[in-house]
Amino acid sequence: MEDGLLKKLDAMVREKGYPNRSEAIRDLVRKTIVDDEWTDASGEIIGVLVIVFDHHSRELSSRLLKKEHHWVGGILSTLHIHLDHDNCLEVKVIRGKAGEVRDFADEMISMKGIKYGTLVRATAGVAL
Amino acid sequence: MEDGLLKKLDAMVREKGYPNRSEAIRDLVRKTIVDDEWTDASGEIIGVLVIVFDHHSRELSSRLLKKEHHWVGGILSTLHIHLDHDNCLEVKVIRGKAGEVRDFADEMISMKGIKYGTLVRATAGVAL
Amino acid sequence: MEDGLLKKLDAMVREKGYPNRSEAIRDLVRKTIVDDEWTDASGEIIGVLVIVFDHHSRELSSRLLKKEHHWVGGILSTLHIHLDHDNCLEVKVIRGKAGEVRDFADEMISMKGIKYGTLVRATAGVAL
Amino acid sequence: MEDGLLKKLDAMVREKGYPNRSEAIRDLVRKTIVDDEWTDASGEIIGVLVIVFDHHSRELSSRLLKKEHHWVGGILSTLHIHLDHDNCLEVKVIRGKAGEVRDFADEMISMKGIKYGTLVRATAGVAL
Predict the structure, then answer these.
(1) Mean pLDDT, range B56-72, rounded to an integer
(2) Within 13 A of D16's CA, how many CA atoms are on the CB side?
(3) What does the mean pLDDT of chain D come to?
(4) Which residue in B36, B27, B91 sits closest to C116, CA to CA?
(5) What value does the mean pLDDT of chain A take?
(6) Nearest to D45 by CA among D91, D96, D115
(7) What is the pLDDT of residues A65-77, one digit of tens each?
(8) Which of A48, A75, A96, C6 could bridge across to A120 with cysteines, CB 3.0–4.6 Å?
(9) Residue C32 has pLDDT above 90, yes or no
């Protein structure tokens, strides 16, 4: 590996607290594998959808449920946390084809009333 | 301990798979401590509320949220699982005074649309 | 219904906050259905296992994982909450045959290091 | 807004399924606010840490617990899902100062045995 790159790698090892270079490199390779799983729209992946919304918005709650209803097999579990009197955070673990999970997440995040939403690429871990 | 009682204890040890009598007795004592925490209506406890409902019932979802809203500090976390196209299971971990948690659970369980509900006595574990 | 029983029913309606007698009776019938699901050891049920333990006990954590490993298909989701510096609460939603879920729960609860454990009878809701 | 930018905005509205431009713009602004909360290392934020690991690795489980122990106040809840016989997915909702949450996540993700880990920027929603 060329010197400049090596320095950046070592900086990353230090900053993130990896025990050594190998562990850091292994992590980079794994991230690439997960990214590839997501690139193939028909690949089986695990997505984690994080949304923040005001739970006073009643209509939103109904609309969320309605959309989720079509995903009964895919949403493994939802964790719901009341952040304060107004705001809720929901984390949904979703299993499915990359393309479908992405579409579903886009639909959810773009809904009126959702303050913040993001889809995290995770993996079923089989290929790692 | 008298003979009849000892036999019952040994049967319990065998049936539940305790490693020995002491562990089984320790468990019985701990259950009594938790029961006592719940008997004192102003004692701080942890309750786990389990409810099953049909998630097509939109109004129910709004009414649940409305009731929970007043418990923002008490509901530590909710786990939501879609059981099938119709049925949802929710597990709510609640921290608060025994009397208030019991009243809240009664209110939730008695709501129209809730198919099944039960409040589990748990504990913050401090006294065990 | 005889007078004495009716009075008790009305007391229950008041105490638990049911909107009317029918809703209270419906709940009692549903509880019986769920109990029946659990009586049949080969019936498909949902169980919610609640355990409290001290998370300093390292060996316990390994032993829990080992036991859960054989239940990979059955444990739908676990919710873990750190109650304080020592105590953790875990809620496990389990799907399976009543007899097997009961055995699994007994095994978990009787383990050394578990301070408190209880298995809650829930249901997949299909028959309600 | 200049024409080229407007076209890109409209493409985003179509692709993500936003009802209109305003909703899409509102989302972009909110993302910036959340990013700002995270830029200020002492700002109070919500982070969602997603990790995938092989749960046969016993030592890992102990090491995870040890690290989490110091974060008792910050980890609001953990959702644990057994993906298959080997792989587990854990989602941890963490509240704290941006810098501290980032350091904690880096420590967790860089641990030997963690196959995949990523920290999601979320928010307590107050400023949105």
Answers:
(1) 76
(2) 25
(3) 85
(4) B27
(5) 85
(6) D96
(7) 778 877 766 899 9
(8) A48
(9) no
For residue C116, the Cα-to-chain-centroid distance in whole angstroms is 13
How far is C58 from D92, CA to CA, in rounded Å? Answer: 20
Contact D116 A106 (CB under 8 A): no
B16-61 pLDDT, tens digit each: 888 888 888 888 888 888 888 888 888 888 999 999 998 777 678 7
Interface contacts C/D by beta carbons within 8 Å: 50
When pLDDT is cut at 50, 70 and 90, the band that residue D80 belongs to is: very high
Cα–Cα distance for residue pair D81/D79, rounded to 1 Å:
7
Q: Is A114 helix (H, G, I), strand (E, B) or coil?
A: strand
Place of tokens 């196959």: D115
DSSP string across chain D: --HHHHHHHHHHHHHHT-SSHHHHHHHHHHHHHHHHHHHSTTSEEEEEEEEEEETT-HHHHHHHHHHHHTTTTTEEEEEEEE-SSSEEEEEEEEEEEHHHHHHHHHHHHTSTTEEEEEEEEE--STT-
B77 interaction partners in chain D (CB closer than 8 Å): 76-77
Q: How far apart are CA A64 and CA A90, in angstroms?
A: 11
**Every domain of chain C and the residues it spans:** 3-39, 44-122
pLDDT for residue B90: 94
Distance between A77 CA and the closest CA of chain C, angstroms: 7
Question: By the CB < 8 Å criterion, does B86 face chain C?
Answer: yes
Residue carrying structure tokens 């990790």? D51
Handedness of CA C92, A109, D51, A73 (dihedral sign): positive
CATH of C3-39, one of 1.10.238, 2.40.50, 1.10.10, 1.10.1220: 1.10.1220
pLDDT at residue D119 in the model: 92
Mean per-residue pLDDT for D99-120?
Answer: 90
A80 within 8 A of B78, measured Cβ to Cβ: yes
D90 bridge partner residues: D51, D80
Predicted confidence (pLDDT) per residue in A87-121, tens digit:
889 999 999 999 999 999 998 998 888 889 999 98
Q: Are B76 and D76 in contact (CB under 8 A)?
A: yes
The phi and psi torsions of A12 (rounded to 5 degrees) equal -65, -40
Question: Is the CB of residue D91 less than 8 Å from the CB of residue A93?
Answer: yes
Q: What superfamily in CATH does domain A44-122 come from? A: ACT-like. Chain A, domain 2 (3.30.70.1150)
**ipTM confidence:** 0.82
Query: Which residues in chain C have their CB less than 8 angstroms from residue A77's CB?
Result: 76-77
pLDDT in tens, A2-60: 788 888 888 888 888 888 888 888 888 888 888 888 888 888 889 999 999 987 776 78
Cβ-based contacts of B86 with chain C (< 8 Å):
125
Token pair in block for residue D119? 């920290």
